Amino acid sequence: MRLYFVIFFVLLQLCSLGQEGWETRPDLPDNFPRPEETEELLFFIQRNRNENTIVYDLNLKADGSLDSKNPINAYWRRFHLDNGISKDLSWLELNFAYGYKSQKNKDVYTIKLKAYNEREIQLTLKNGKWTPIITINGQPAILKNLYIFADESKLWPSVLYADIYGESILTKALVKERIFNK
């Protein structure tokens, strides 16, 4: 009986991935929780798989200064089934999916995410606060969050698109860009 339940559950998950309509989905799912706005929060990533969220915070030393060797602390907020508890990323997640590389040049850190390093994030001091700046639709913007939509019906997930959300530095308007996986 238990084996039938497991098989049924797996088939149900595969059939309910909701792949239809992804091309025109206008925004983030309304039911996804958002991490609390804190002084350390830079941006976060959410995925269509579930509500669990990868959070990118400033990595501050005890004296309040930015850790120049590791300026960002990336970790899970386990909203799906775990009431939002924080959990470290695994070695695999840090090195192949949600980790980053940083390079310091004077007072600016160039950040490249491991999973998509074609677009740089400039971590820079803006009005006395560390701010992640990225290009969205050809204009500089403060990065707020990313939403990754992947087809998980196969052995290894395949990203179909990523939405980048931010606030335009020029107009202060919210901006979004969808990048399709080629």
Number of separate domains: 1
Please compute the radius of gyration using only Cα atoms.
18 Å
Beta strands, count: 11
What is the tally of helical segments?
Answer: 2
By secondary-structure content and strand pairing, the structural class works out as mainly beta
First and last CA, distance: 43 Å
Strand-and-helix sequence, N→C?
HEEEEHEEEEEEE
Q: Care to describe what's here?
A:
- The protein is mainly β and about 180 residues long.
- It has one domain (about 1-180).
- It is built from two helices and eleven strands, in the order αββββαβββββββ.
- It has helices at about 1-15, 90-95, and strands spanning about 40-45, 55-60, 70-80, 85-90, 100-105, 110-115, 120-125, 130-135, 140-150, 160-170, 175-180.
- Strands 1, 2, 3, 4, 5, 6, 7, 8, 9, 10 and 11 form an eleven-stranded mixed β-sheet that branches.
- A hairpin with a 5-residue loop joins β10 (about 160-170) and β11.
- The longest helix has 14 residues, at about 1-15.
- The termini are far apart.
- Residues about 5-20 have low confidence and may be disordered.
